[in-house]
Structure formats: structure tokens, C-alpha cells
Specification:
Length: 324
């Protein structure tokens, strides 16, 4: 296993602030310390060559975990071994073997072209010229950015900049790469390009940990999903197991000839309503088998159109967040 995490915990010490102006003023003189348990004992392993989606609602503890895994934050307790290193103890050696792309933070320099920043990284990592050029040429070709890397960074579009951020993170050929919201703010085409790049790097053996709120990223890239909520793992399995998590539930988009009501049918929940005749339903086939559902609807209405699908992954994730 390339990543081993045991009972990883992080408590933040912070000070309680008053709700009102008066209380806030009081707290300036007499502060009450409180402990925030951001990460409450995470245990997991990641195999070499995997792409793991690390999901959770806002404040679940994802960034805190990622900071500990990249070595910038000391945990309160617990153990992490990545590529044989303890990230926060052997940080200098460790960072030569990992890469990171943070969608909301840039590693490039605003006033200089990306190509100059790439050369800066070459010096920082002490990369040999021939190997550096070979990697750079390969990455530039894959991402189709030969013109772009010579323009000042501040002139680049977000999509162009993100491609360069990826090159910056991959130049020293890391074997584990952490991605935090790598496609945030990108248009559909740029997202596709970035995802294809991640897949290509993965096929060359790079292991990825991917934190994102974009479930398309997860569906297209991750083979495994770890969901955290309130600092704890609430789900850790394959993407297909995630789909099966709500088991028997399906979505049914149905159009009837006349106005239809659905609330009285056991096992059926209205997800959205286009009009009196067009509705999207959630059907729990454990409670009401599909055959029974169709028979029941046929008794009451004339079906004009109907499409049945597995529950979308965002609905499953929402239920996971709410259920835990
Ligand atoms: N420096 C800090 N001091 C005190 N509390 C903190 C600090 N950093 C984070 N927290 C708290 O720890 C918890 C976990 O935060 P964290 O940023 O890890 O969540 P997250 O899952 O990354 O959220 P998001 O999706 O919004 O980025 C939150 O309750 C947050 O308010």
C-alpha cells in the first residue's frame, strides 16, 4: 500500500466568539478556549495506481486531512506513511515525491510566463536538463499548451492556467499527487481536458487523491470513494458500491395524459415537478417493485412517456451526508 493512514486526528484550539456585540466585546477580555475536532481518527489505505475521490460536505475535514497528508500540518495524533515517509517529519525528502494542485491556489507566478516558473521548479528540485526537457515536452504536448506557456500568467484564462498548474505539479515526476478542486470554475471542455490528463498520468502509474465537490470528477475519474462527514469516514468503497448504496432506489421521469398526484403511493417520492403531468419521482423498488408501480400508474392514468434510471450520484451523496 502506497498510503497508510491510521487513527489520524486533528483538534484545533480556537476561541469562542459571542453571538451579540456585547458578548463579542466581553470575549475580548475573557476568552473561552474551545476545541474543534476537525478530524476524528481516520483510518484508510490506498493502493499504488489508484484514483481515490475524497468527498464530504463543507467543514467535513477534507482540507485538514489533505494538509496532514501533504505534510504542512502536524496531526494531534495518529500515523501516516506515504511512500515510506511520515509527511510532516520528513517533509523535505517527501515533497520531492509528491505533487499537489489546488484549484483555488496558484503555484505559478503572476507576472512571469509559466515556462519561467517551470525552469524555477527545475532548479528547486535539482532536475537534470535532459530529463526535465523530456518531461516538459511530453506534458506540453499532452495538454496542448506550447503557445500558452510563453505568455505572462496573468494573461491566461483559468483553463489555460490550470493546465500549467498541472505541468508545474508534475515536472519532478511525483508518484502520488493530491488534487483539491482541480476543475473548479472551468468550462465543460477544459474540465474534460484536465480529466483526460489525470487519466493519462494515472495510466502511467501516478496515484491520485482527489478532493472535489464536482461529482462529475468523481464519476469520471475515481475508482474508489471515501466520504467523510464531521471528521469521520462514513463511506469507503468502490464507485459501483456507492451507486448500490441506496440499493433499490430509481428515478422515474414520467409524463401522464392527465394531471397526476403521487404523494399517496407508498415507496414513491416526488423529486421535482415540471407541470401537473410531468414529474420526476424517486421509486424505492424494495417497497414497490417496478412491475407493481407500472400496474398502479396504468390503472389511474395513460402513460405518455416514461424513463427509468439509477439514482444520480449527487442524490446518493446527499443522502450519505444527511444520513450520517
Ligand atoms: N485553523 C483552524 N482553526 C480552527 N478551526 C478550524 C481551522 N481550520 C479548519 N477548522 C475547522 O475544522 C473543521 C474542518 O474544516 P476543513 O477545512 O478541514 O473542512 P473541509 O471538509 O475541507 O471543508 P470545505 O469543503 O468547506 O473546504 C471545520 O469545522 C472548520 O471550521
Amino acid at each position: 500500500m502506497i498510503i497508510q493512514v491510521r487513527e489520524l486526528r486533528k483538534n484545533y484550539m480556537t476561541y469562542q466568539r459571542g453571538a451579540s456585540f456585547r458578548e463579542t466585546l466581553k470575549s475580548v477580555f475573557k476568552r473561552k478556549a474551545i476545541t474543534v475536532e476537525a478530524v476524528k481518527g481516520l483510518t484508510f489505505e490506498v493502493a499504488e495506481g489508484d484514483i481515490v475521490g475524497f468527498l464530504g460536505p463543507n467543514g467535513a475535514g477534507k482540507s485538514t486531512t489533505l494538509k496532514m497528508l501533504t505534510g504542512v500540518l502536524h496531526p494531534t495524533s495518529g500515523e501516516v506513511q506515504i511512500l515510506g515517509f511520515t509527511p510532516w517529519k520528513q517533509r523535505k525528502k517527501y515533497v520531492r515525491n509528491i505533487g499537489a494542485v489546488f484549484g483555488q491556489k496558484s503555484q505559478l507566478l503572476w507576472d512571469i510566463p509559466p515556462i519561467d516558473a517551470f525552469y524555477m521548479n527545475k532548479e528547486i528540485y535539482g532536475l537534470e536538463e535532459a530529463a526535465f526537457r523530456e518531461t516538459l515536452d511530453h506534458l506540453v504536448e499532452l495538454l496542448d499548451v506550447s503557445e500558452i506557456i510563453r505568455k505572462p500568467t496573468r494573461q491566461l484564462s483559468l483553463g489555460e492556467r490550470m493546465k500549467c498548474e498541472f505541468i508545474m505539479a508534475m515536472l519532478h515526476r511525483p508518484s502520488v499527487v493530491f488534487l483539491d478542486e482541480p476543475t473548479i470554475g472551468l468550462d465543460v471542455i477544459a474540465k474534460e481536458k484536465i480529466r483526460a490528463f489525470i487519466q493519462e498520468m494515472n495510466s502511467q502509474g501516478v496515484t491520485f487523491i482527489l478532493t472535489t465537490h464536482d461529482l462529475e470528477d468523481v464519476e469520471q475519474l475515481a475508482r474508489r470513494v471515501i466520504v467523510v462527514n464531521h471528521g469521520e469516514i462514513v463511506f469507503d468503497d468502490s464507485i459501483s458500491a456507492l451507486r448500490g448504496f441506496l440499493g433499490a432506489k430509481k428515478t422515474v421521469r414520467i409524463t401522464t395524459e392527465s394531471a397526476a398526484l403521487w404523494d399517496d403511493i407508498h415507496g414513491v417520492r416526488v423529486l421535482s415537478r415540471e407541470s401537473e403531468t410531468e414529474t420526476e419521482l424517486e421509486l424505492d423498488t424494495d417497497k414497490l417493485p417496478l412491475k407493481e408501480f407500472i400496474r398502479l400508474v396504468n390503472e389511474r392514468h395513460t402513460i405518455m412517456d416514461m424513463a427509468i434510471d439509477a439514482l444520480p450520484i449527487d442524490v446518493i451523496i446527499k443522502e450519505l451526508y444527511q444520513g450520517s
